[in-house]
Design goal:
mainly alpha; Lysozyme; single chain; about 140 residues
Length: about 140
């Protein structure tokens, strides 16, 4: 039965390079190094919490919200309708660049978003899961940042 090994090789080749989910402390370090700790007054714990609830630390996550009429990209599920090149492109970035595990374009765009009048409230999932949490410390527990 030659078909199974061939399908296995094809599926391996089609898996995007760098599509691995990042560990929590790796995310924390990248976000810290990108200058998000207390950016616009929001602690690093808030950013790591947001990354977890938006993408489960998957920088390659893409979620199409048919009810909302947008697609979310990357670690923070940045909406294409406003922030990347499928829409208004307020971050001046391609949506595919938001899927890069180095997170540079994602962090740059997140900084632009959080500078808006809603702050981190621009992410409803942050308001629901992170904003009023009294356990934010756990997001950096054991991380060296």
């Amino acid at each position: 039965m030659q078909l199974c090994p061939v399908l296995l090789v094809i599926s391996y080749l089609l898996t995007p390079i760098g599509a691995a989910i990042l560990r929590r402390c790796v995310v924390a370090k990248k976000l810290h190094d990108g200058g998000l700790d207390y950016f616009e007054g929001y602690s690093l714990e808030n950013w790591v919490c947001l990354a977890y609830f938006e993408s489960k630390f998957n920088p390659s996550a893409v979620y199409e919200n048919s009810q909302g009429g947008y697609t979310g990209f990357g670690l923070f599920q940045i909406r294409d309708s406003d922030w990347c090149d499928h829409g208004k492109n307020l971050c001046s970035v391609s949506c595919s660049a938001l899927l890069n595990p180095d997170l540079k374009d994602t962090i740059k765009c997140a900084k632009k978003i959080v500078k808006g009048k809603e702050g981190m409230g621009a992410w409803p999932i942050w308001s629901k899961n992170c904003q009023l949490s009294d356990t934010l410390d756990r997001w950096l527990d054991g991380c060296e940042v």
